[in-house]
Amino acid sequence: MAIKIDSKLTPKKLVPQIERVFELSGKKILSIEKSWKPSAGTPVFTVKGKYTSRGWTEWTQGFQYGSALLQFDAMGDARFLEIGKRGTVKHMASHVSHVGVHDHGFNNVSTYGNLLRLMREGKIAHNENEKNFYELALKVSGAVQASRWTNLADGTGFIHSFNGPHSLFVDTIRSCRALAVGHQLGHVLMGEQDAKISLLQRVVEHALNTARYSIYYGEGRDVYDARGRTSHEAVFNTVSGVFRCPNSQQGYAPFSTWTRGLAWAICGYAEQLEFLRSGIHSVASDFKSVGSLDKYRTMLLKTAMATADFYLENSCADGVPMWDTGAPNLHRLPVDYLKKPSNPYNKFEPVDGSAAAIAAQGLIRLGNYLNAHGDKKAAAKYCQAGLSVAQTLFSEPYLSTDPQHQGLLLHSVYHRPNGWDYIAPGQSVPNGESSMWGDYHLRELALLVLRESRGEVYLTFFGGVQN
Description:
By secondary structure, this protein is mainly alpha-helical. The protein has a single domain, classed as Glycosyltransferase, CATH 1.50.10. It is 46% helix and 7% strand. The strands form 4 sheets. The protein has a 3-stranded antiparallel sheet, with no helix packed on it. Strands 1-2 form a two-stranded antiparallel sheet. The protein has a two-stranded antiparallel ribbon with strand order 3-4.
């Protein structure tokens, strides 16, 4: 195992660092709110410390306003609740009905979902009309994402990416919480001849097919089959519904592992395990029309643990990974680079702090799930690993302390193959910049740990999950 795990770390020990994170976070949210012009589009990542837009798909605006809601949750400052509510009402409606993306769980659960969660928890006043508004947005969002459906030869299917009906992205598993929330709210997708299409059925089939085609288990699938490895994209023949090949849009190659995709899998599968434990809606009774709940739970756990273990084995000692495990210049790094703390300023390949923030949350959620099911040894490994990664990210050189820099989490990579990431003078690889998803997930990670240290209700969008 490459990562060095601090077995004595606790959520309470991280509180001073977390308080500093949110102190810095608030200033950066206010800076973006003051300077960002909606006409410029959606803020995506920083260039020279200032947030800029990058047209590809609109998948990051929910992180902008969701971050303000997380800030309010952590610190109780009503200014951020107002920023989050106002931004959600004014700018997020088009995202609810956006039929061209697979990112509804990112955009809409991070905004409408956070607002509904805060109301359920009593952190904001109950307002029946507002509650109905949030619930309607989440119902529609889950159904719209579920409508992006490709049928496969075996009668199942998957939610296809914005690339088209042939494309299954590994990242979508984290966004599937939109379908899970919509199902919990009692919603269905209505189809031709008034067919009622189950959101639960679609999230289950998508999770199963992502696990089948995008995750490897060391079982001889191909000569590059290493347990826990992920491919970014699975490509299908849409005429026959048959799998054709792995691919990668944002990673280096189909047979290497893009580590942010890996992180999405860890977090997404851990969160789907939590969905099975949620108490607002009876998942067990609903599963009677879907398939075997026990088999599905076993698959989720197998996939979550495989990807988590691969992450732990392929990250640097401080828990931060390189942007891709097969990046072409890794051989130019010291042979033992994984045994040392990550170096975002190395000359050869970038690290990805955003992947670490996403993975850390997934590791903690997986550990908490295992702890609730009696596997104390495995639970301790994943929880402590997640806390160890968090400790790294809550400090320099990953925490952005420069008041002129609008980002919160440094050394995030967006799209290395396309060359979209800013490279500063004197540097040969991207570093020192931030992304909306990295900043949001650092805040979500910090809030998860902070609430655990306070003994508050477990941070989940599903409700009824006990830590």
